Structures
1.
Amino acid sequence: MKINEYASAVEAILFASGEGVSLDRLCLALETDKQTVLDAIDVIKSRYKKADSGIELIKMEDSFQLTTKSKYADVIRKVFELKRSTPLSQAAFEVLAVVAYNQPVTRAYIEQVRGVDCSGVIASLSQKMLIEECGRLDLPGRPLLYRTTENFLRCFSLESIADLPPIPQNDEDNGQMTIDLEETENAKETVEETAQ
């Protein structure tokens, strides 16, 4: 098979799947090596760029998915009469940050960091598929562990958790945290548009 045929096959698999497909599964389905699949993925990406398409191919950890470009979210919502998701609260962003930077974590750990009960926020983030249960801690009571999901990576346009921005450091002059407000606002808008 030529690389363009592999690219078309990968594109068909990703389109039919409707969700992320791991590199290993793509290799298995196409009976080829990882480099060939990665080359095919590059061909697909260049096709979409050349055509100025409304679709893009994104990478999340070791998986790939076809998605619509976020700039078309409003027109897609109109066609399918989708309701705009309730925006995330400040508390939800705080819990999400604790989970993202420290995963896997227990609810007790999140509550210790924030100083308040977080069960409702955790349930809300789980419902929006931004975090998920990922096992239990081997301690008395066997508390649940939480981690971020592929949907989290998709919403924040990240390929992996390693792409998270560094944690802001305390400013020595006034003891306040320094944060890029523009990046925070952009992330809020993205999550509001894509989280369901």
Note: The chain has nine helices and six strands.
2.
Amino acid sequence: MSLLEFARGPALWASIFVLVAGTAWRIWGIFRLKAKPDFSEPRSTRVLAGALGTIVRRMIPKREFRDSATLATSNAYLYHIGLALVVFGYLPHIQFIERLTGLAWPPLPMVIFLFAVALTFVSLLTALLYRLTDPVLRLISSFDDYFSWLIVFLPLATGMVAFNNASVPGAPLAPTPLALHLLSVELLLIWLPFGKLAHSFLVFISRGITGAAFARRGART
């Protein structure tokens, strides 16, 4: 079995299994926590509206913190949007998703895809530099922060190596660079449910629960 066959076969399905099982385990762990009974009379029963409102409002920094968090917040939006465009806008990625799920959509023009790659590269490096140079952020950063950054950066870097090794645009990618790219993606899938990258799905659950609780109490988050 070649490295590419391993990456496309056993490694891929093992990483998907860990991703699904780990995500289910994290979500189950949240919802199995028993909340203390609240016998007070609810000030509002619009808990769903409160949950959705908090999810949306928390995406925008509060006015008191906007001046001090402008760079970090703007940069975070840039690499999140850039990653989404790279993952879901490149034709081979769409074809890969289609083989797994049957879902497909039109790809982005190549010029927009390449711009998204460049934007994401710069943005991720800016995030790392900011973490290394800001005294407070550096103090509270842990192994999880740096390893999660690396796990996100590796698929981007190996993907561009594989892309640049194609003889002509649209030609089949070289087996070894493609295998390394797939393995880096699979490492990301394995790590995603267990590190801080789990915020990609837990953020909506935590904000929704908080918003629902505050709506019941008649408070605004």
Note: The chain has a mean pLDDT of 83.
3.
Amino acid sequence: MFEGRRWLLPSAMLRELDPDAERSGRPRRTARDWVVDFCCFLVAVLVGLTAADALDDHPDLPHTLVVVDQWIGALSLGAVWLRRRWPLGLAVAMTPIAMVSDTSGGVGLIALFTLAVHRPFRYVAWVAGANLALLPLYIWLRPEPGMPFLAALAFSIALLGAVVGWGMFVRSKRQLMLSLRDRARRAETEARLRAEQAQRLARESIAREMHDVLAHRLTLLSVHAGA
């Protein structure tokens, strides 16, 4: 069914939607996965570069801290390619890292989005709650020049909620596709069973009729033989 469109499907859904997909080992990335991962990497790079420019213009941060921040952000970019393998571990690890590194903020948001897509809500609630609890401290330690504390806090909460909501929306769409596929499989199975049952009943009816006809013929032969 998906033979000509396998590259359009996420690898996490391919083995669930396609009964002929390979079941052994970890699912291999499809072409869609590579495109999405590369786009996420580019977004993380752009966010990191923007944060690095803002750090250079920050008057209260020492140069050593700026360099360390940029190195942490550069190293965290490689974790984007591991987000499908360890979504929960990456999101948990990026929570404290994003507290000390502005340039890794994009990776933290992508990790939280990936967690919302691939894991149930209870994990998302714990990690997102930890991020929300740390936001006031982060904004207090790293105030945004020219933006009041409450405005920066409201913007950060809105951005965090948008990322989590988007990830949960993607997860709900995938679960809907899986449920529709399961319903289609059950409908096909039930239709096949009904067809087999109808054929069996038809064969049994024909067999009964042949038995009755044969019994009637034998009775007539016995009557004629007796006569």
Note: Residues 3-181 form one domain.
